[in-house]
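Ops channel
N.P.: pipeline sanity check, posting one input/output pair.
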């Protein structure tokens, strides 16, 4: 998330997120650690194609990339895409959920042996927040402001800070619980 509260530019681009990718190894390590604690990724349809294409490309074609270990985890994890308009999404370990997202997420949470993780998109995450389906927030704050973009918080949302971790590159990981 940017300092001014956006998770993407208005057109969905994330070019600001990894501007200092070579300095982000500790951040990647934390993202991998969080992913290892989870059994599935929940995704909104709008960002899914780019997400899947990116990680499957890194995994298949870039074994020397600093993103490779994370790419392997992203590809191998079960991914559940929530869509009202698509019944099929191509990719490894991808399922599509077309029903009521609140009931589907509640059922997934009840059946899960490990945590579920949500990567986006912004509208999908906002829907989960507004339906009180997020149990814990891990928000990486990037030392950049982009002026306008896509927020995930669209209404007053009270959170309780339970942990904060600063990285040498200026990024922060703040962990919150719903207040």
């Amino acid at each position: 998330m940017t300092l001014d509260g956006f998770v993407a530019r208005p057109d969905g681009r994330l070019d600001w997120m990894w501007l200092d990718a070579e300095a982000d190894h500790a951040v990647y390590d934390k993202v991998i650690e969080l992913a290892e604690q989870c059994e599935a990724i929940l995704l909104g349809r709008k960002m899914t194609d780019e997400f899947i294409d990116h990680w499957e490309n890194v995994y298949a074609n870039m074994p020397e990339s600093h993103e490779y270990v994370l790419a392997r985890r992203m590809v191998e994890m079960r991914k559940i895409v929530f869509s009202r308009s698509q019944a099929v999404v191509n990719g490894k370990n991808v399922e599509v959920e077309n029903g009521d997202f609140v009931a589907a997420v509640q059922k997934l949470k009840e059946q899960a042996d490990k945590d579920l993780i949500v990567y986006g998109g912004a509208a999908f995450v906002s829907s989960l927040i507004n339906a009180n389906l997020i149990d814990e927030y891990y928000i990486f704050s990037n030392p950049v402001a982009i002026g306008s973009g896509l927020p995930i918080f669209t209404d007053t949302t009270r959170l309780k800070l339970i942990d904060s971790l600063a990285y040498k590159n200026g990024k922060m990981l703040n962990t919150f619980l719903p207040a």
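N.P.: looks fine end to end. The domain at 21-134 is CATH 3.40.430.10 (Dihydrofolate Reductase, subunit A).
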